[in-house]
Description:
The chain is of the alpha+beta class. The chain has helices at 5-34, 43-56; strands at residues 62-64, 66-70, 73-77, 87-90, 94-100, 109-115, 118-124, 133-139, 144-150, 158-164. The chain is built from 2 helices and 10 strands, in the order ααββββββββββ. Helix 1 crosses helix 2. Bound molecules: copper (II) ion (CU).
Amino acid sequence: MKFKPAVYGLIISFIVVLLAGGILSPFLIHASQLNKRQNISIHSIADIKSWILDIISADNHTIILNAAEVNKAYRWVNSTGAINPTLQMLSNKEYLIKTENPTDEQHQLIIEKINGNQITEIGNGDDILPQKNSIFKFKSIQPGELNYHCRYHPDYMKGTIKVTQQ
Length: 166
Ligand SMILES: [Cu+2]
């Protein structure tokens, strides 16, 4: 039996789609079940979960907080370009804070809890070098208001995180 190359291409693509669907579907089902369960301790499954959720871009665990230079000052901006946006989070839920840094300086995200005169650093990402990206995982156990800022530009790159009870 002789097929034209185009037919072979079609058959191969069909097989690839079937295989990809078959391999990914158990993970996708697993990921949706994990969302409903609280005390999952298997780390690799959680990693697979965030990886898959990331790929299908259907998760609300991801927060975009990019570094930008706006009117000669460094700022945090979200995906819509809002400057130093107020971030909304649920307590006890892990978020991936993704940062792109197209500027010429390094930045570092610091998260603090302010209680009267007492300031406690409760999270800090890595240094984000010029032209580099970063992903920082953060979870707030307690609801309340937090502050975030850049270690190097704390007066310009700063905002509020509102954590509500899950
Ligand atoms: Cu900065």
